[in-house]
Amino acid sequence: MKSRFAPAAGVLAAALLLPGCFQSFNGPRPIVTEGALTDVLYGPARRLVGRSCADCHAKNGNNETHGDAWGHAIRLDSYQDWIDGRRVLLERLDTVTAAEQDPPVAAMPSAGFRYPLSDSERDTLLQWIRRGSPNTESGFAEGL
Ligand code: HEC
Predict the structure, then answer these.
(1) Spatial separation of the C-alpha atoms in residues 7 and 55, rounded to whole Å
(2) Which domain holds residue 64?
(3) How many domains are contained in the chain?
(4) Residue 27 lies in a domain
C-alpha cells in the first residue's frame, strides 16, 4: 500500500515545492520600492536600499521568504537596523572588503540581482556609513 502511493505523493510534493525552490530573484513581480529604511531622511539611502536591497532584506520584499535570506541575513527596515548593521554593511557594500574577508563573503546585492549598485552608488552608501549615517536630509551632520 505504502509503496503504491509513494510515487504519486512524491510527484505531488515536487509540484508543490519546486516553484518555491526555484523562485527567481528576477521574477515577474515588481520591485519593492518602499518598506526599507522608511524612517531614514537621507533620500539617496532610502532610494538605493529600496531599489537594490529591499527585495531581500525588508518587510514585503519579493524574496522575503527566500530560503537563504532569513534567519541569518540582516534586516533593513529601519534606521536602527541600518545603524546596528554598520560592521557587516561596511563589509558587504565594498566589493574589495567583501572579497578580503576570511572566508570571502558575497558583496551585496548578490550577483545576478537585476538592480545592482553602480560604483558611485556604492560610494554614496559607504560614505554615508563612514560619516556615521547622520539621519538628516543632506546625509551630513547638521550644524557643522
Ligand atoms: C537577491 C537577494 C538579496 C539582495 C537584493 C540583497 N541581499 Fe544582502 N543578503 C542576501 C542573502 C541571501 C544573504 C545571506 C547570505 C550571505 O551571507 O551572503 C545576505 C546577506 C547580507 C549581509 C550580511 C548579514 C550578516 O549578518 O552577516 C548584509 C550586510 C547584506 N546582505 C546587505 C545587503 C545590502 C546593503 C543590499 C543592497 C545593497 C543587499 N544586501 C541586497 C540576499 C540579498
Answers:
(1) 36
(2) 33-144
(3) 1
(4) no
